[in-house]
Write a structure and sequence with these properties.
- This protein is of the alpha/beta class.
- It has five helices and seven strands, in the order H-E-H-E-E-E-E-H-E-H-E-H.
- A five-stranded parallel beta sheet has the order 2-1-5-6-7, with helices on both faces. The chain has a two-stranded antiparallel sheet with strand order 3-4.
- Strand 1 (25-29), helix 2 and strand 2 (52-56) form a beta-alpha-beta unit.
- Helix 3 packs parallel to helix 4.
- The relative contact order is 0.19.
């Protein structure tokens, strides 16, 4: 990774809120059917909070009763967020597919950090969030986590947050 790579620019609270609040469909690349895996727990959580979750994993046939696709190019519906649970070196290919299908954003989970993947997605017009958990951020900004004293970095008392 380039020493000048600025990861903080991919962790902007307002971008995170906008991505979460304007999305309906989340394709999870690397979603596992194993309930003990983090990706499964995140997918379950997102479904419970009203998102349409599309599994993208060539090793699974169905997850949560939804057909699992081999890659993003096979997904037959529009995707708002491409959420990535894969090794960082897989990100450039995933970013190219996300651009090709017209996704609105690329969300890379904890540890999924790849400068080339971020650049490809940004150049393709996608918002990029990197090294953040979508479940944690949803709970922080759209859920109930703030009741527990977490700093949401919001300057409003209006429910629903900033847009």
């Amino acid at each position: 990774m380039n020493a000048s790579f600025d990861l903080a620019r991919y962790q902007d609270p307002l971008t995170i809120q906008r991505v979460l609040l304007n999305a309906k469909t989340v394709a999870i690349v690397g979603l596992s059917g194993n309930p003990l895996r983090a990706s499964h727990f995140v997918g379950f959580y997102l479904r419970r909070h009203g998102y349409h979750v599309i599994p993208v994993n060539p090793r699974e046939s169905t997850i949560f009763g939804e057909q699992s696709y081999g890659n993003l190019l096979d997904v037959p519906v529009p995707v708002d967020i491409v959420n990535v649970f894969r090794a960082p070196d897989a990100l450039p290919v995933i970013a190219k597919e996300a651009v090709a299908i017209g996704a609105k954003s690329l969300w890379c989970q904890f540890g999924v950090i790849n400068e080339e993947g971020a650049r490809i997605a940004e150049e393709g017009g996608l918002s990029v969030v990197m090294d953040r958990c979508i479940k944690v951020e949803h709970a922080r900004y759209a859920g109930r986590m703030h009741w527990l004293g977490f700093n949401t970095q919001r300057v409003t008392s209006v429910r629903g947050g900033l847009q």
